[in-house]
Amino acid sequence: MDYHEDEEKFKDLLNQEYTWPAQYLFKFIVKEATADDITSLFDKSVDISQKPSTGGKYISFSIRSTMTNAEEILKIYNEASKIPGIIAL
Known about the structure:
- By secondary structure, the protein is an alpha+beta fold.
- Helices cover 35% and strands 31% of the residues.
């Protein structure tokens, strides 16, 4: 299975689960140095909460945002995947 097939399956699941527009919760873990890269993916009006790891090397983000469709969610995940060392939950 290739990346595009996985992306289409995820998009289908999103469309089955949500009625658009809908609130969607993104969860990411990044190194402290790339924290601004995550927040730059979102409009300033979204609800962003962050929590540093015990050692302070990493920050976990929970970001709740109103999304208009599945493609918008995929676009954010694709942009986030360019951030070095990111973990998307």
